[in-house]
Design brief:
It comes from Crenothrix polyspora. The protein contains 4 helices and 42 strands. By secondary structure, it is mainly β. Among the domains are: 94-226, Jelly Rolls, CATH 2.60.120; 484-541, no CATH class. Strands 11, 14, 17, 18, 20, 23, 24, 25, 26, 27, 28 and 29 form a 12-stranded antiparallel beta sheet that branches. The chain is elongated.
Length: 542
């Protein structure tokens, strides 16, 4: 086959180069493109300048592999982010007021949808400046942060030495309660980004289990100021983008309930997360990604997104994953009550040329998520669906078909090998990057790659990673080889391997629960504690 060359204009789905501010408009429409009639869409406007080239197909690998979808079970009953009350009222809090700043949302990193900036404090706030109060088991201190421009805020701390007893709690003025307690396990390379809070004020409580206050041990040196709110546009004081905007309608998952594939799309949505992260310690970005199943259905939180979203461990450490960030009903601007946030991930593999990243999440996703099935087989003409969070909006769905495979696409910064999807209903936008494309087989969603970007002239022509091209790179995790530490655990506690899935086995006061393919997922000592397997090691919850 002769190679052919065709020039066109492309854009990263999460790139925001030379654009005007977002204009989010809700309106009633009555459209039927085979998906069903919708009564809601969001229109966002974006314009980009990138160049692309297409070349001949690469040879297909000889193998074909696939896995089905499973759902998270509710065995442990522990919320993904349970609130944790402050230990003291904070009447002696250190007041930290940020000045008004000129915030430009034009991306400084190619491919990243920018939602805020990192403000470096001219003078860090040290532990010695705080008023430490004696509480049961140690000392606490508080900081009260105000940034009038902010929609959300995140604290960054540097620690002078390793502190195993430190615990952080944060609460924004728009949060109903303090977020979950964050301990030393979230500290990486002696620094930590705390969870984002909602509102333009954020209270931080620091607890240290020491006999005396930890005066020389840490400082607050930076604050992430996020000015783009979920669904509500941007704050004042943000620099305008420099070119005109094009209208792009997106179709809400909640309005797709008339489609035959709706049950499958619901499962795909429950495996899809909106991702917030901090890139290079400078900007706050947003993308989308998908929770994947493995061959043994261990429910290990494997996660796929684009490498232009998360390509370093430093960025993965800052990632926040929003689950069930979707509308409860068609036309609603409310958010599903199941919405939860988990934080942090380990980057296992990433590749810029293939624009794919594979991670293992630090925290267990909330109950009800799906670990999505996948296949490394994709064909031209195949009917597919995109499930994504354009502009950090609620879950949207797009319907289309595969038009070309393994094309060489050249942007202003690099070359990529990608598949082309042409949507006939909906499309993709900023923030959609890293989201999955799915086929539906016998009522189940099958994941087939992650979003790189779209064409400038037509947001319905999009470009996705080719899973078959990198399946061999991540196969060792999706195959889930037996872990020697787990086998030792089985032997130590006399685990019984012959039971079928769902059966229990009781021995010496322990109940082994939820067998999957003969492997133990959880065990409970009826008098003391509950253990559960996170895919790598056993965790104990007292």
């Amino acid at each position: 086959m002769k190679a052919f060359l065709m020039k066109t204009k492309l854009m990263y789905a999460s790139l925001g180069i030379n654009t005007l501010p977002t204009s989010d408009i809700s309106l009633a429409i009555n459209t039927d493109h085979g998906l069903g009639k919708f009564t809601k869409s969001r229109i966002n406007k974006r314009r980009y300048l990138l160049a692309a080239a297409f070349s001949l197909f690469t040879a297909l690998p000889a193998h074909a592999d696939s896995v089905g979808t499973v759902q998270q079970y509710d065995t442990l009953g522990k919320a993904a982010n349970a609130p944790s009350a402050f230990l003291a009222p904070g009447t002696q809090a250190f007041n930290l007021n940020l000045p008004a700043m000129h915030i430009d949302l034009t991306p400084t990193t190619p491919g990243i949808h920018k939602t805020g900036v990192v403000h470096q404090l001219p003078t860090p706030v040290t532990a010695a400046q705080l008023a430490w109060q004696r509480v049961d088991g140690g000392y606490v201190a508080h900081i009260h942060l105000v940034s009038k421009q902010a929609k959300r805020l995140r604290y960054h701390l540097i620690l002078g030495q390793k502190i195993s007893s430190i615990v952080f709690r944060v609460k924004g003025n728009m949060d109903a309660a303090p977020l979950e307690a964050i301990d030393h396990s979230f500290i990486h390379d002696n620094n930590i980004w705390l969870p984002s809070t909602n509102g333009n004020k954020a209270d931080l409580e620091i607890f240290v289990n020491d006999a005396s206050p930890p005066v020389p041990l840490f400082s607050v040196d930076a604050i992430a100021v996020i000015v783009e709110d979920l669904n509500k546009g941007s704050s004042s004081g943000i620099a305008p983008k420099s070119v005109e905007r094009a209208e792009k309608p997106e179709y809400d998952l909640a309005c797709a309930d008339v489609a035959d594939e709706y049950p499958a799309l619901q499962k795909a949505a429950s495996a899809t997360a909106l991702i917030d992260f901090i890139e290079n310690g400078e900007i706050v970005g947003a993308c989308t990604g998908t929770l994947l199943n493995d061959k043994k259905a261990t429910r290990t939180p494997w996660f796929a997104t684009a490498s232009h979203c998360i390509s370093s461990q430093a960025t993965a450490n800052t990632a926040e994953f929003h689950w069930f960030y979707q509308a409860p009903s068609c036309g609603s601007r409310a958010t599903d009550r199941r919405h939860k946030i988990t934080r942090g991930a380990k980057l296992l593999w990433a590749n810029n040329y293939l624009d794919a990243a594979f991670l293992k999440l630090t925290a267990r996703p909330p109950n009800g998520v799906s670990f999505i099935g996948w296949s490394d087989v994709i064909k031209v003409g195949e009917k597919v669906w995109g499930v994504h969070h354009p502009m950090r909006d609620h879950t949207m769905v797009s319907k289309g078909k595969v038009t070309a495979l393994r094309q060489s696409v050249t942007s202003d910064t690099s070359k990529h090998l990608l598949n082309i999807i042409e949507y006939i209903t909906g499309g993709v936008e900023l923030g959609s990057s890293g989201s999955g494309v799915f086929s539906v087989v016998k009522g189940s969603p099958i994941w087939k790659g992650t979003l790189w970007g779209m064409q400038l002239s037509d947001y319905q022509i999009s470009y996705y990673s080719d899973f078959r091209s990198y399946y061999s790179k991540i196969k060792k995790w999706l195959d889930t080889l037996d872990n020697p530490d787990i086998e030792q655990f089985y032997k130590k506690y006399l685990a019984y391997f012959g039971k079928k899935s769902g059966e229990n086995y009781v021995s010496k006061g322990y109940t082994y629960q939820n067998f999957v393919n003969g492997k133990i997922i959880a065990l409970e000592n009826t008098t003391k504690s509950l253990w559960w397997f996170d895919g790598t090691k056993w965790q104990q919850h007292r």
